[in-house]
Design brief:
Strand order of the largest sheet of chain A: 1-2
Largest sheet of chain A: 2 strands, antiparallel
Number of domains of chain A: 1
CATH superfamily of chain A: Farnesyl Diphosphate Synthase
CATH topology of chain A: Farnesyl Diphosphate Synthase
Number of helices of chain A: 14
Helix content of chain A: over 70%
Strand content of chain A: under 5%
Number of strands of chain A: 2
CATH class of chain A: Mainly Alpha
Oligomer: homodimer
Order of helices and strands of chain A: HHHHEEHHHHHHHHHH
Shape of chain A: globular
Distance between the termini of chain A: 37 Å
CATH architecture of chain A: Orthogonal Bundle
Chain lengths: 274, 274
């Protein structure tokens, strides 16, 4: 017997979010038709919309605003993916070619901006200061997290605490905001909303750790996106930090050389072998 | 006797906007300190904040929200400059090195996102649905205008109407929004707000035409930013469209060749000579 998935209780609502997401993306001019049709092929896990809905259900009733909020968090997330794929020079995303690989970085920069502002336009129709403030602050924190990560590439002094600070900002903050929004719009008080926020933070951190391990251990066919980009780009993720911390003497020197050589195959072999 | 500048009546308010802009940009983490200090050196014309204040004064009293709105439109404008300079590969902006030239495109993408979201965070403190909806829609229109411009590079079929459509989106829309915001927050009714919006649209279009002419005719010392980027990047601006439309036969073929050769010096000479 198949075990129940954690999204099962919100399956119908998730279908509604999916329909609405595609409707909101409908291009108003020909210039965007191809880009939007391509983004429509991205089949993501829709983790963030699910967190909005599950947190809402956990607290009380789902209201129409939950669907809108779920669409907004997915739109903002998609915008960050489009910009991240430029930085990582990723060629594959969600089982299809990345926007960056198909149209180049110039189009990708502007299309990311388009998706961010589309998300905030939908959000502003809700007329909720709490939601607008929380999501704009979250995007701010996310971009700061990505900036810190970039600035500390190839820095072997990056500690586990530094790593957790980065992933909390760049990934977990939007998961936490999704939970807080879901809870708040279902009538949660501050205490309950804070607890679901913290739950989202933990889910986001766990998700990013798995994602970082898959970047080293996974296969592109299974995962559906470009892998090994972390090592290629000098991003020190948890598997690499743990590798460096476990080694000493010659082995440490060899690992450092491999990381700074930017040869991902050898580094991957070294990590898997440890 | 020196003639009165159009900004004279709002000079003190503009100083307040300047102080507030720098205060709002204060970095909360070390990772951003250098980037923000650099942006602080950008000495712009502050056209959009001036349009907020002048439109407000034109209708009624200036209120504290006008200062906030003026800061927000400048923040959003600065974000678009940071992203545009990646696309144009511009090395100079507002008399100093561009963020792209100094830190590269990866940092520039994320720093642009940071500035956009900072602008929307300040905006959300005003708790105005009208302002949030208008500005998010405006950023959406601006990115669409830039996308259309990119897609039609090196396209000699670009008409003057197409050009005006592009510059209305990418430049004039934020000037128009600045005027509408200034008017609305001073208590303007719909009719007055619409008229000032249209005034802003015309100012923005005029401003962009001048900017496009300066790209061909100006000097970098005077203008303080990288010039000739339009021709280098295949952007057909009004001077180039007029050049192509005036020519026929061999002269037209030569102009086309020069444009498609991407040799900006020869094309510049051809335009100035026409």
């Amino acid at each position: 017997m198949e075990s129940a998935g954690i999204f099962d209780s919100v399956k119908e609502l998730m279908d509604e979010v999916e329909t609405r997401f595609h409707k909101e993306l409908q291009p108003r001019s020909n210039s965007l038709a191809d880009l939007i049709a391509h983004i429509g092929k991205y089949k993501g896990k829709r983790l963030r919309p699910a967190l909005v809905l599950l947190s809402g259900k956990c607290v009380g009733d789902i209201v129409p605003q939950h669907i809108e909020l779920a669409v907004v968090v997915e739109m903002v997330h998609t915008a960050t993916l489009v910009h991240d794929d430029i930085i990582d020079e990723a060629t594959m995303r969600r089982h299809v070619e990345s926007v960056n690989s198909k149209w180049g970085r110039e189009i990708s920069i502007l299309f990311g901006d388009y998706l961010f502002s589309r998300g905030f336009t939908i959000l502003s129709t809700l007329d909720s200061q709490i939601a607008t403030l929380l999501l704009s602050q979250t995007v701010n924190i996310m971009s700061e997290g990505e900036l810190i990560q970039l600035q500390r590439r190839y820095d072997l002094g990056l500690s586990e605490n530094d790593y957790f600070d980065i992933i909390e900002r760049k990934t977990a903050s939007l998961c936490a905001a999704s939970c807080r929004l879901g809870a708040t719009f279902a009538g949660a008080n501050r205490k309950v909303s804070d607890r679901l926020f913290n739950y989202g933070l933990k889910v986001g951190i766990a998700f990013q750790i798995v994602d970082d391990c898959l970047d080293v251990m996974g296969t592109e066919e299974e995962i559906g996106k470009s892998l090994n980009t972390d090592i290629q780009k000098g991003k020190l993720t948890l598997p690499l930090i743990r590798l460096v911390n476990q080694l000493s003497g010659n082995k440490l020197e060899t690992a450092k050389e491999l990381i700074f050589q930017h040869d991902s195959r050898d580094t991957k072999a070294a990590i898997v072998g440890c």
